[in-house]
Design goal:
The complex is a heterodimer. Chain A is mostly beta strands. Chain A contains two helices and eight strands. The model of chain A has no long low-confidence stretch (mean pLDDT about 95). Chain B is built from 14 helices and eleven strands. In chain B, the strands form two sheets. Chain B has a nine-stranded mixed beta sheet with strand order 3-2-4-7-1-8-11-10-9, with helices on both faces. Chain B has a two-stranded antiparallel ribbon with strand order 5-6. Classes of the chains: A mainly beta, B alpha/beta. Bound molecules: zinc ion (ZN). Zinc ion binds next to loops of chain A. Chain A: It comes from candidate division TA06 bacterium DG_24.
Chain lengths: ~130, ~375
């Protein structure tokens, strides 16, 4: 991971900044330049809800190299209370007890140690609410 | 627009081809198609390839391959839309012939995936997902399809058994295809007890890492009648559509809307309905994918894809045999080659040339090839002449 590539996403990964279309009200995460719902081009910056429910999930048992130390780990698509869906790891959870509909909240966590560029990557993970 | 026909097909044995360079895998396969077509020259060429840059460190692929095939200086282009690159190459070739720009076009697909380690292949394939908002969190491709499977099971009651039946069926078909990477049968118990990759998907729910190529020669239909000695197969429908690259951004993650849209366009162009399709080659990169695809193509109702495989509806001898070649599951999945290999199988079937796995009386065949978790899809419909 190059440092510019990491740096550019910091507002989303650290602060959950999304773009709300001022024409139709759709919230886009990450922000876009054009609204995919109404083609609007005006947005205001809003912060995502930090609680939601598990929409679907899986347990990653065969992980990419920078995640091998964490495997097995749960990942899911979480529907936040503002209606936005995100993909994230679901941490601090009993892998056998995880289920669709479970309540979770977002926490700021270490995501991966990326070896080659030496960047320690942070961001959001979900944990049981 | 001119009518276009497939007049030659080529495919060699797929697998782990460590002793062959990418360029040689291509030339060997292209020559099979050229010889099958009985043509003495090629006017233009397309190659579908997802990531020769990440898999073998080689870009500028089309020129390299045209050079080694000995057809330079004809125009050659490489096209990419992840695992649907082969289907896209076929569509581009069809358009070029239909528009009258070229007469005899070689369409090929290729991927050489085993020169890198397993982790290198996982990384290269992962680039077909949203790198910043899926891959960043440690979500793999099996992980994305596993989340689709989990939700399909939740919404429609699809069972672990039904997922396994897709693998069992496609391996049963693939056992009759000597060119398949894994031409042997597997049992439900073997699938259900194989190593877990991303719950509920196990290794026998996943298509393999494969080296391989596929090629077809196409030309105007009226010229096809004077070339070669095999019956030409007519291209009657083509559709291409996109969807969000991130799975989480779709309103219904088990509904492949790009497949639905591409199929609608292809059905409309061909003037056929789903129940007029005699056989289909579809993108079973994971067992759940075939279940979702058969729904989006309109072969069965929404949510009924699991029951379709369980009842034998999609098996050889069933109403619409799906993946008679063995599919990606048994035949192998060299990603850029897959879409063209589907056309190879349909052509063999519509010529009545598919050996033990021949669908009796096959007249109309459909190919569905998709990229990523469904962010791009190509659908083609071919008809016997
Ligand atoms: Zn809008």
């Amino acid at each position: 991971m190059s440092s510019p590539r990491y740096w550019r996403e910091i507002p989303q990964r650290y602060r959950l900044e999304a773009g709300k279309c001022t024409d139709c009200g759709n919230i886009h995460f990450p922000p876009r330049l054009v609204c995919s719902a109404c083609s609007g081009r005006q947005f205001e910056t809003v912060k995502l809800s930090d609680e939601g429910t598990v929409f679907t999930y899986t347990i990653i048992r065969v992980a990419p190299s920078q995640f091998v130390d964490q495997a097995p780990y749960a990942v899911g698509i979480v529907e936040l209370d503002d209606g936005v869906r995100i993909s994230a790891q679901i941490a601090d959870v009993d892998l056998d007890a995880l289920e669709i509909g479970q309540r979770v909240r977002i926490e700021f966590r270490l995501i991966q140690n990326e070896g080659e560029a030496g960047i320690i990557c942070y961001g959001y993970k979900c944990v049981p609410a | 627009m001119r009518d276009v026909a497939v007049i030659g097909v080529g495919m060699a044995k797929w697998g782990e081809l460590w002793d062959k360079a990418l360029r040689d895998v291509f030339v060997e396969t292209a020559l099979l198609a050229i010889d099958d077509a009985g043509v003495d020259h090629i006017d233009s060429m397309y190659v579908g390839c997802m990531s020769s840059g990440l898999f073998v460190g080689q870009e500028h692929l089309a020129s390299l391959l045209a050079d080694y095939l000995g057809i330079a200086p004809v125009p050659a282009a490489r096209v990419e839309t992840a695992c649907a690159s082969g289907g896209l190459a076929f569509r581009q070739g069809w358009m070029e012939v239909a528009l009258g720009q070229s007469d005899i076009v070689l369409v090929s697909g290729i991927e050489k995936m085993t020169d890198v380690t397993g982790d290198g292949a996982t990384y290269a394939l992962g680039t077909a997902a949203d790198q910043e908002y899926e891959g960043y969190h440690g979500i793999t491709f099996p992980g994305l399809y596993a989340m689709m499977a989990r939700r399909h099971m939740h919404d429609y009651g699809t069972t672990r058994e039904q997922l396994a039946q897709v693998a069992v069926k496609n391996h049963r078909h693939g056992a009759m295809n000597p060119l398949a990477q894994f031409p042997f049968e597997v049992t439900i118990d073997q699938v259900k007890s194989s190593v877990m990759i991303a719950d509920p998907l196990r290794i026998l729910d996943c298509s393999p890492i494969t080296d391989g190529a596929a090629a077809v020669v196409i030309c105007p239909l009226d010229r096809a009648k004077t070339l070669g000695d095999k019956p030409p197969v007519k291209m009657v429908g083509s559709g291409h559509a996109t969807d969000t690259i991130a799975l989480h951004a779709r309103p219904d993650i088990t509904w492949l809307s790009a497949t639905e849209r591409a199929a609608e366009a292809a059905y409309k162009m061909a003037g056929v309905k789903p129940d007029q399709i005699d056989l289909a080659e579809v993108h079973d990169c994971f067992t759940i994918a075939e279940i979702c695809v058969t729904e989006a193509l309109g072969f069965v109702d929404r949510g009924k894809g699991g029951q379709a495989v369980e009842s034998g509806f999609t098996a050889l001898g069933g109403t619409i045999p799906v993946n008679t070649s063995g599919g990606l599951k048994s035949k192998g999945h060299p990603v850029g080659a897959t879409g063209v290999a589907q056309i190879v199988e349909l052509t063999k079937q519509l010529r009545g040339d598919a050996g033990d796995r021949q669908v009796e009386g096959a007249r109309v065949g459909l190919a569905q090839n998709m990229g990523g978790s469904g962010g791009s899809t190509l659908v083609h419909i071919l008809e016997a002449t």
